């Protein structure tokens, strides 16, 4: 017999788990349908930044949405810890983007100026620092670092522990987690969604698509257009080392456990999460130029994961016109936006609609504009 | 001998590992005129079984035994061949296109091979009992390495525990070297012994039968062997002080000990093969992952073969023959016009292989370790690198983890420097038991390069193409 829920969330990654946790918290009966142990799971491959600077050029509302999540993150982390006992080590010391040449620094400054010159851009602190000021805050920078940008809103977390805490938390809140339930088909009839999986049917009154790149396939089944594509990113991790880095850098961060994570890359390779030696070598080389002390550390792991990318790089939050009750949430910043997904988006979904004044801009209808000739 | 700067851009055949399989494979490929390189982690050829055979400080031949010294012939043939030999070399990556990442002496480089023969052999099955991480507890294999390479033997009260041929061999070698072994705690399970008996007639004709029997009798004459051991624990504050166990009558016994050597068989070392995406299957007799190979060691990845114990445990003599078969396939593919008298003689190889593999199932079943020694409970450590316990892993199953990869991200289990070598099998079996499904359904960690650690500096110095740089450098 099919199981029935108020809301089904398809996808148990960071986006789906955060929304499910938020729904569980306000008393919804929720099922999370997930794939198995091997999946294209960006949530196990991300860089764990809660990052603000540089986001939103071309869509200032996205910058505002990001700042809002960054502000909510501290309370969100505390709440998860209180509930699950898991410390996800959220820190917000501010973060850097470092430049290895004057040209890189000038380019950086130009991007940030254009970002903040946008009308309707939310004001927040950021600055370009010269080498001397960077060195005062990051004493281990190498001689090639000419400066960088700093934003006090930036931070990072222990992302795998966030992932676990959301799963532990949603279980405590009574959310039903259904692994090995890949959704093959969704039907909508009499205001009810039926998810067809090899492990049986699941029924719900509402539906949230949070299946990452899988949303492109699932969306049209409930009247949603979700044009996303995989974009490969590679990451290198070193052995644990004594703490040397007090601030996260957008491509270098030391975890609370001591390992140093180095990122990242952007490659259009389709559904191919293979690690490439040239790319990880380039990542390693730039990291060593930024922080020469890294050179002697052993690399213990590398991986590639697939980002969930739209044409303009901004998230999609949308609701179906033809199948009321169906929503989609998809982004490539599942860590940064987790607080919003849990605390803002989930209650709105439970209420049945996304207010257009905030969410119209994130609708995939923005892609329907015919291209200029 | 070559350093990394003498590694060429490309080869016909690259062999990884200088144990019996790698040695015969490289020798045969070079004899056929193929440009052949052999990368090996050790400073001298021999693999684990013939480790340090050209330079061991153990002078008295009788200590290590004739079966050890037999390996000298393989090394001599290899050294006389035209294969390039790169010792002290860590192969840390292999791509589907057969690009090999290799490091030696703190420098890394990439090379390309038309065929790759992985001969990385076996490693010891994890033996996760309470206290197995205490100083003073080590594996029998580690003990044997110290003996062969450094003529080092344990001092003080010494216990061996577990099952399998290597445990008996080490005991025999120790006794030959004058080490006093206080006792051997034999964990061979009664159920395993009964399951093995139907295969005993075949084993009677195995060359291992007489040798094994003689060796065990010789050990039994010289030291105490306690059979039917269960409930094994290593105990002590900050280091090993005593070993507790139970026997058939149920009473718990404690023996004081300074050194405990554990062993319960060997399993294929699959990390390099898995990292390149070679298909593996779960073997219900050997209770481990085994690559799916054809009659020449060929795998699901084009141009990559596996020879020796890495393709399934069959022992050193079989490894020697399987190395030749992998070489034969490489020669036929790359140099089809090779004269018959230079090619290894396949009929002879198959005959020899059949002889040494006879009765293998008896050994597999007889020494199949009991579940209680493979699948720990409670506070017993599973992942030594990150200190993850059995109970923590069981708890993630309750959270919905269906396999090792989601579990790993929840607990960091398997993320340490050993890259899952010491916990992978335990995790698979533990999750299988907890979920009530076969191990094949659980799967293994997804492995990626580097399969052995290299420094960031080495990685940074590798050549990069435009596309790679463009993928990383941006505003």
Averaged pLDDT of chain B: 94
Overall body shape of chain A: globular
How many helix segments of chain A? 9
Radius of gyration of chain A over all CA atoms, rounded: 21 Å
Count the domains of chain A: 3
Report the CATH architecture of the largest domain in chain A. Answer: 3-Layer(bba) Sandwich
Low-pLDDT runs of 5+ residues of chain B are none
Number of strands of chain A: 17
Summarize the topology.
The complex is a heterodimer of chains A (373) and B (475).
Chain A: E1 3-10, H1 14-25, E2 30-33, E3 49-50, H2 60-84, E4 95-99, H3 102-117, E5 127-130, H4 131-137, E6 147-151, E7 155-156, H5 159-172, E8 176-178, E9 185-189, E10 192-197, E11 200-209, H6 215-218, E12 229-240, E13 252-254, E14 259-262, H7 277-290, E15 298-309, E16 316-319, E17 326-330, H8 338-351, H9 356-359
Parallel strand pairs in A: 1-2, 1-11, 2-8, 11-17
Antiparallel strand pairs in A: 3-7, 4-6, 5-6, 9-10, 10-11, 12-14, 12-15, 13-14, 16-17
Helix pairs in contact in A: 1-5, 1-8, 2-5, 2-8
Chain B: E1 10-16, H1 20-31, E2 36-39, H2 61-64, H3 66-69, H4 71-80, E3 84-86, E4 89-94, E5 99-104, E6 107-118, E7 122-124, E8 137-139, H5 140-150, E9 158-163, H6 165-176, E10 183-186, H7 190-196, H8 200-204, H9 207-222, E11 225-226, E12 230-235, E13 242-246, E14 252-256, E15 259-264, E16 266-268, H10 271-275, E17 280-283, E18 288-291, E19 304-306, H11 316-334, H12 346-357, H13 360-366, H14 371-374, E20 381-383, E21 388-389, H15 390-398, H16 404-411, H17 424-435, H18 439-442, E22 454-455, H19 456-460, H20 466-472
Parallel strand pairs in B: 1-2, 1-6, 2-3, 6-19, 8-15, 9-10, 9-15, 10-11
Antiparallel strand pairs in B: 4-5, 5-6, 7-16, 12-13, 13-14, 17-18, 20-21
